[in-house]
């Protein structure tokens, strides 16, 4: 959230003078490298910095894609914007459910490997 909050006004300011598609590409590139860095982090500070950089990629889509959706849709702009913004919490909720189910499966399989109630 820190990266998202800090970089959001910067991207909004840069969108006035630079091509927004290039800014989205820059944000996507930073997000890709930050994702790889999060996977290969070695201590708390390295993962904290990589997680902050993930916010840069998120803000490039959240703040810059909405005007294009608003301009490029031929009908019902509010419907497409609602779908776009609904996908963010839906993705988080789906990941949380997946993680919870995966943890339950691991616990049950470990229980079965250890011999059950013996």
Notable features of this structure?
single chain, transmembrane helix, mainly alpha, 118 residues, flat, membrane, MFS_spinster-like
Give a quick rundown of the structure.
The protein is an all-alpha fold.
Textual characterization of the structure:
By secondary structure, the protein is mainly alpha-helical. The protein has 2 domains: 1-72; 75-118. It has helices at 2-17, 20-39, 44-72, 77-113. It is a multi-pass membrane protein. It comes from Rosa chinensis.
Strand content: under 5%
Q: Based on DSSP secondary structure assignment, what is the total number of beta strands?
A: 0
Radius of gyration: 19 Å
Sheet with the most strands, sense and barrel status:
none
Number of helices: 4
Topology of this structure?
Elements: H1 2-17, H2 20-39, H3 44-72, H4 77-113
Helix pairs in contact: 1-3, 2-3, 3-4
